Amino acid sequence: MNEELLEEELGAPSPGRSWQTLRRLWESVCDQRARLAVVLVSVICYSVLSVIGPLYSAYLVDMLWEKIQAALAGGEAFSLTWQSGGRQMLLLLAAYLGAGGFYTLQSLLMASFAEKLSLRLRSELSEKMNRLPLAFYDRNKPGSILSRVTNDLDKMAEAMQTGMLKLLTAVGMVAGSLFMMFRFSVLLTGIFLFFMAVSLFFTRMFSRKTLQCALRRQQCTSDLTAQVEEAYSGRTILKAFGREEESSRRMHQAAQKLADANRQADFLVFAINPAIRLINRFGQAMIAVCGGLMLLNGQMTVGVFQAFFQYVNQSAEPLTEMAYMINALQSALASLERVYAMLDEPEISPDPALPAQVERARGVVEFRHVRFGYTPERTLMKDISFTAYPGQKIAIVGSTGAGKTTLVNLLMRFYEVEGGAILLDGVDTRTLTRAGLRENFGMVLQDTWLFEGTIAENIAYSKPGASRQEIIAAAKAARVDFFVHTLPQGYDTILTNDAENISVGQRQLLTIARVFLCDPAVLILDEATSSVDTRTEMEIGRAMKALMQGRTSFVIAHRLSTIVDADLILMMQEGNIIEQGTHQELLAAGGAYAELYNSQFA
User: How far apart are CA 569 and CA 573, in angstroms?
Assistant: First the structure.
């Protein structure tokens, strides 16, 4: 699969962006470069001591070999003294202990480096998600976003914690060992380099394929996470329509794709290690044969022979680690690319540096020649104009997809208009901060979103710091107080697991109580009583009528019987207002509204 197809299929950056990702990574660790410098110095010291060890052992072995031969020739027993071997062994031990100390130091530093990097990127993603427009969440499944914030960062941290350190150590060990090997024997080093070249060829051949497989695996993980989230959120609907088998089939398909992607990626990652080791073993066998002949011919001493093999092992094993870790780091690179791709998503426009202020809006809302489209190629709203005055009830009606919710989203600045302006009390909403604008609005939607916490905390979500008396007053106004007192802990009842310990109607009442508490100037109601029984609806209707007194109210209506008393009805079709007026005026006009109304009461 070529890079363009891979990018299109997986929705992730292509392998060609690897260098760009590495540059971004270097920028992300700007506060840890001193730590990396210490790690690099530690790696150098570790490599130097590891390279000195075999060299000094060659001198020690040759010295001991000569003394042993001299003792045997003179018929004397060989003895090890401080001057003849003891001091040299202690120095050799000190070199190896020093190498171990530096290795421990760099391991500790790299472990904290990876965790701090992961924390920084996770924090950046968290902040980024607050700056992303609603359109981003519309086109990305929650499971896919969750996968980037969790799975991708975990994989990156794991690889950085071990893989980068092993790679740096391997580079130092291979470079130092090769230098010493050339000093001992050019011929044997040439044999070793030949097999090293073969190993590197296979490593390079597999690394690109490994990156593609890693990208595919991460995308499959994201898809499976999205499937799980969807199945859990919609479990009641799945059971109601008997779609358990279909959901299970889709879940198994996603799991099977992930298993196939894992199997292919893991095979490439883990198969390269024994393959490189096998190539190295062939090289060592040939070096042993040639080195043995040189030893028998007197071209090499016993000490040099054993030291050369130490260098072979010191460079061959790191070479194997390099091959393995390069492929593992490719997988981490794929995860980083996905993380940076999310960090590069277009953000909402910043709030104005000197924003206008509307402390307590009167509720005059004006749409002035508003134009909007979800994509530049397709304009949904071409010319929307109307004015709502304080205390008026504005009903928005139309078939599904007519643009009712889009109109409200523009009013709240969840999306930005492409042309025209929306004014609140004569002030262009784009000159306000989003927080300053939205504190004048209260929303009651069909989706009863409640959060884990007590009933009191959920009501107070619209007004942090509200007193218990204010919460209870809002609950009474929304007809919530009665059923709350029937619960064992009352207002301290914990809502968990999608608030399944209370009914759907009671959840809707809690969301209405939130709006009572924040006491907004403008209300947005999306068929707020659609989830309650008739008796509760009547009680809420009376409370809502009192709440709407003196406030501008936008009501997205599906049952036209609930909005016959509206001061202004906006009939929408394909994103545009095709009729507007009162109920009687629109019925008399005999247009689309009259047709829709008559169809509901035929």
Answer: 13
Q: What pLDDT sits at residue 274?
A: 77
Angstrom distance (rounded) from CA 509 to CA 363: 24
Residue 341 has what pLDDT?
A: 85
- In this prediction, residue 9 carries a pLDDT of 38
Please determine, for residue 132, whether its predicted confidence score (pLDDT) is greater than 80: yes
Close Cβ partners of 504 (under 8 Å, ≥ 6 residues apart): 448, 531
Q: From CA 45, how far away is CA 104, in angstroms rounded?
A: 12
Average pLDDT over residues 161-175: 79
Q: Give 33-65 pLDDT, tens digit per residue.
A: 888 888 888 888 888 888 888 877 777 777 777
pLDDT in tens, 288-305: 888 888 888 888 888 888
Whether the pLDDT of residue 69 is over 60: the answer is yes
Taking each helix axis from N to C terminus, what angle separates 186-233 and 244-296, rounded to the nearest 10 degrees? Answer: 170
Among 44-48, 260-264, 316-320, 447-451, the range scoring the smallest mean pLDDT is: 316-320
Which single residue is written with the structure tokens 């090997």? 181
User: Quick one: what percent of the chain has pLDDT higher than 90?
Assistant: 12
Task: Say how far apart CA 437 and CA 413 lie, in whole Å.
Answer: 8
Residues 147 and 225 sit within 8 Å (Cβ to Cβ): yes
Q: What is the DSSP string of 131-176?
A: HS-HHHHHHS-HHHHHHIIIIIHHHHHHHHHHHHHHHHHHHHHHHH
CB crowding 572-598: b at 16 or more within 10 Å, else e: bbebbbebbbebeebeeeeebbbebbe
Give dist(CA 462, CA 465) in Å, integer.
10
Tokens of 373: 């489209």
Q: Exposure of 27 by Cβ count < 10 A (0-12 exposed, 13-18 middle, 19+ buried)? A: exposed
First to last CA, the chain: 59
E-only strand ranges, 306-418: 365-372, 381-388, 393-397
Question: Which contiguous run of DSSP H or E holds residue 220?
Answer: helix 186-233
- Of residues 159, 137, 455, the one with CA closest to residue 332: 159
555-575, pLDDT tens digit by residue? 988 778 888 889 999 999 888
Q: What is the pTM of this model?
A: 0.64
Q: If you average pLDDT over every residue of the chain, what do you get?
A: 81
How many residues comprise the chain?
Answer: 602
pLDDT attached to residue 464: 85
The burial class, CB within 10 Å (0-12 / 13-18 / 19+), for 18 is middle
Q: What is the pLDDT of residue 70?
A: 74
Q: Write the DSSP assignment of 188-201 as a string of letters.
A: HHHHHHHHHHHHHH
Strand partners, 203: none
Biggest alpha carbon–alpha carbon distance for the chain: 130
3-state secondary structure of 466: coil
- Distance of alpha carbon 383 from alpha carbon 417, whole angstroms: 11
CA distances from 337 to 1, 243, 344, 557, 594 (A): 18, 36, 10, 44, 54
